[in-house]
Design brief:
Arc Repressor Mutant, subunit A, 10 helices
Length: 249
């Protein structure tokens, strides 16, 4: 996230907190606001998954200022062992990142993705909505069915629709689970060219006219896509190309 976005977000939180604090000290219904704050805190604590703002509004009284309440909780929990964070436009409590080394005890063995799967995931993230043929065009090699299967089983990639081109190939995109796993608030927070170059992940000999794609994840289908038919099975892939043994995930 850029410094400007961080600064604007901080200013917004501070403004909301100041407004809510003034209401607590001056309004006769200060106790009601505190009750709303306690209910909001309980909802977030008890949730097994991140909660979107609209769901919180539905569960709180009609006159509750959910935005201001979230801003105050965010401020109150900043610097603590547990923080209130927004991930993929949803809210959740999570342990502070700097305490992670002290909390690891027993955990599942991570499933290491192959180079092919990582490259395919990156192409989907930066080029979505994208078809399998377009993924292969970027990678320069055939993409095995198993590679995309793995990404869909992890919940990081999904079928979006069908491209309005001959053959009507399906298009792929990332999911909210992808954002949550990589701790991204929005797909636009993916690192750009300068970030990747600074991290040593781009070849310094890249041509001067090289451009990074602008990542986006539109919720609605684009003008180039049609919705999937009812008979489409998300676990079925219509491209029966022979798998490349050297490209297995």
């Amino acid at each position: 996230m850029s410094d400007d976005r961080v600064e604007k977000a901080a200013d917004g939180i501070e403004s909301s907190v100041v407004s809510l604090t003034a209401r607590l000290h001056s309004a006769p219904d200060g106790q009601a606001v505190e009750a709303d704050l306690r209910l909001l805190e309980a909802l977030l604590f008890a949730a097994v998954e991140p909660i979107d703002t609209q769901t919180l509004r539905d569960r709180l009284p009609e006159d509750a200022d959910v935005g201001a309440l979230l801003a105050r909780l965010t401020r109150d929990y900043s610097g603590r062992g547990v923080n209130l964070v927004r991930v993929a436009d949803r809210w959740r409590f999570q342990t502070a990142i700097d305490l992670e080394p002290h909390l690891v005890d027993i955990k599942e063995a991570p499933r290491k993705l192959s180079k092919a799967a990582l490259e395919t995931l990156a192409i989907i993230a930066y080029h979505q909505p994208v078809t399998r043929a377009e993924i292969e065009d970027v990678r320069g090699v055939a993409v095995s069915k198993g590679t995309i299967d793995v990404l869909m089983e992890l919940g990081w990639a999904r079928l979006r629709g069908r491209r309005r081109t001959p053959g009507r190939p399906v298009t792929y995109g990332t999911t909210e689970a992808f954002l949550a796993h990589f701790n991204l608030e929005d797909i636009s927070d993916l690192p750009g060219r300068d970030d990747l170059k600074a991290a040593g992940l781009l070849d310094p000999r890249l041509p001067k006219d090289f451009e990074m794609p602008e990542p986006m994840m539109p919720d609605a289908l684009t003008n180039e896509e049609d919705p999937l038919e009812d008979e489409d099975d998300p676990n079925f892939f219509e491209d029966f190309l022979e798998e490349d043994e050297g490209d297995r995930a």
